[in-house]
Amino acid sequence: MSANPEWIHPCRPCGACCSTFRVSFAHAELNSVWGEVPTDLTEPLTPSRSAMRGTNCATPRCVALDGAVGGFTTCTIHLTRPSPCREFNAAGEDGEPNERCDQARTKWGLAPLTAADWAR
Ligand code: SF4
Ligand code: SF4
Question: Can you give the pTM of this predicted structure?
């Protein structure tokens, strides 16, 4: 139970990584193949890999992201998101740094997360 009832996960008022990087993964993760990622939200990238639509361009924004970066955001396919998203922890989560989280937040004018963001 949280000591601070107003604490929310730092990714909710962020969404920066979903609007910074290309999100690519093996075709096998698609729900039209063997996986769960909704195929209609993806595009083919190579003969063996797909990308989340909206992320394979100079100004990425994943089609599955709802909300404004730095506001209140939600991954609309959270339970069926692809492996790169499942494996991308926010900086400081479980005590581990993540320079790419810091990089994405900085790009969007958000300060890198600190221990204070994890104080529940
Ligand atoms: S950039 Fe970091 S804090 Fe922001 S949504 Fe991604 S993982 Fe979470
Ligand atoms: S699938 Fe969800 S977690 Fe992954 S980039 Fe898109 S919005 Fe972000």
Answer: 0.95
